[in-house]
Design goal:
About 5% of the residues lie in helices and about 55% in strands. The protein is mainly beta. The strands form three sheets. A nine-stranded antiparallel β-sheet has the order 1-2-5-6-7-8-11-12-13, with no helix packed on it.
């Protein structure tokens, strides 16, 4: 995509009974840059790349290639509603990205992912439960604390491990068919909401590891 290419979106929001929903479409740029490698032999001579295929057109930089942001189409659906049994709000979001680009190939070279760009239909889902926890007696908060548990999953459909899709060009970790994260968020309110610390923790269920953000 070029910087002056138009990007746009449309969203319909509605309520069916006690359930809220929305439908959306957006044309935008891929959120992370992709390497469009040159077919020149200069790369293989320096970095061990044995073959590379440019994406749609030969890059302007014939030494290595171009970092690009391809255009993508995103179709989205959300739904949310309150459940008295849990005294909580349940939400779900699903997005479908047809022909989402991924760098792939050349895993054994010094530039993994520089074999080119491959397109795969991708589905991203999010499941969330929001609930107010009464922590006043335990922590001294002045009102119930909003907490949220979320599960995010990115699914590459028609996945083939032999294609060598990487997490990011030049980073040799192979991307898995499913990448799933679990997160927990809590907001605390003290002194009539003049002090509002929050805490986020999460873990990568697919690859291991995690994070904590106070």
């Amino acid at each position: 995509g070029d910087w002056d290419d138009p990007t746009f979106g449309i969203r319909w929001n509605g309520i069916a009974g006690s359930v809220g929903y929305s439908l959306a479409y957006i044309k935008t740029f891929n959120p992370t840059p992709m390497m469009n490698p040159t077919s020149s032999t200069a790369v293989s001579g320096l970095f061990g790349v044995t073959a590379s295929t440019p994406y749609q057109e030969e890059p302007g930089n014939q030494v290595l290639g171009d970092w690009i942001y391809p255009e993508i189409d995103v179709f989205g659906f959300t739904i949310n509603g309150y459940t008295a049994a849990l005294d909580a709000t349940l939400s779900a979001e699903v997005t479908f990205v047809p022909d989402k680009p991924f760098n792939h190939g050349q895993l054994q070279s010094a530039l993994p992912g520089w074999g080119g760009i491959i397109e795969k239909d991708t589905v991203v889902t999010m499941w969330r439960i929001d609930k107010e926890l009464k922590l006043s007696n335990l922590l001294g908060t002045n009102r119930p604390s909003l907490s949220s548990i979320q599960i995010f999953d990115t699914w590459i459909t028609d996945y083939d491990s032999d294609e060598g899709i990487v997490e990011f060009a030049s980073f040799g970790a192979k991307k898995k068919e499913h990448t799933t994260y679990l997160t927990l968020f809590t907001l605390l309110n003290f002194k009539r909401d003049t002090i509002n610390p929050s805490f986020v923790i999460g873990t990568d269920l697919s690859n291991g590891g995690g994070f904590a953000i106070p």
